[in-house]
UniProtKB/TrEMBL annotation:
Occurrences of domain Protein YjdM N-terminal (ranges): 4-32
Protein name in UniProt: Protein YjdM
TM annotation in the entry: none
PANTHER family according to UniProt: PROTEIN YJDM, PROTEIN YJDM-RELATED
Amino acid sequence: MSNLPNCPKCGSEYTYNDGSMYICPECAHEWSAEAQAENTSDDRVIKDANGNLLQDGDSVTVIKDLKVKGSSLVVKVGTKVKNIRLVDGDHDIDCKIDGIGAMKLKSEFVKKV
């Protein structure tokens, strides 16, 4: 069992080590061991619509009318959401909105206050 990483470009498991470089024989991609170490960090970076870094506890404003799935409610433009929590997944913000309740939002539809 090889402990070499899979190719970051094509996902091939047949990579090999050539000095300080990893090489993929299937797509000919080459990368360094230092680059591999940088890519394995678990720091998730979630940014708002303007590119500002979001963190747990931030307040954000909705920048687009959002329909609430399974309901006739709409989250209007300019709605302020306090104390957000960042989560993994497609909808990366978990929050509570006054008058609507618990929701998950996509970071591309909010801006940091």
